Amino acid sequence: QVQLVESGGGLVQAGGSLRLSCAASGRTFSGYVMGWFRQAPGKEREFVAAIDWSRITTYNSDSVKGRFTISRDNAKNTVYLQMNSLKPEDTAVYYCARKRRGPSAQIGTMESYDYWGQGTQVTVSS
User: Fold this and answer.
1) Which terminus of the chain has fewer CB atoms gathered within 10 Å of its CB, N or C?
2) Per-residue confidence (pLDDT) for residue 77, from 0 to 100
3) How far is the first Cα of the chain from the last one, in angstroms, to the nearest whole number?
């Protein structure tokens, strides 16, 4: 059974920081690209960042690059999203997901990911 469990969301003031974690069950994690997406109310789910097994990272540069950092601990089967300088527009449910094996060019596409966590709410107040 594949399981991804996010944690670390909450309420923070603008300019603050949060660190999200996503714990993956055993075979879910090894060798796979892991990604973070987010979905704000009334909006489509959007790509935030992804990291491959070698810790090469990809970011949605328009919205988060320079403020968010994705990382992973392969020994702990955990992927992290460090979020700094948070803005009210970062308010969303944040999801981690495992990417199917395949072209890296599709790394920002939801359809490239086959397993998803339940999401964790991040609320940034102004």
Assistant:
1) N
2) 93
3) 40
Residues 6+ apart with CB under 8 A from 23: 4, 5, 7, 76, 77, 78
**Cα–Cα distance between 5 and 17 in angstroms, integer?**
20
pLDDT-based confidence at residue 30 (cuts at 50, 70, 90): confident
Confidence band of 65 (pLDDT split at 50, 70, 90): confident
Tell me the two tokens of residue 2: 């594949």
Is residue 26's pLDDT more than 70? Answer: no
User: What amino acid is encoded at 21 in this protein?
Assistant: S
User: Would the pLDDT of 14 be above 80?
Assistant: yes
Given a contact cutoff of 8 angstroms between Cβ atoms, the answer to whether 82 and 95 are in contact is no
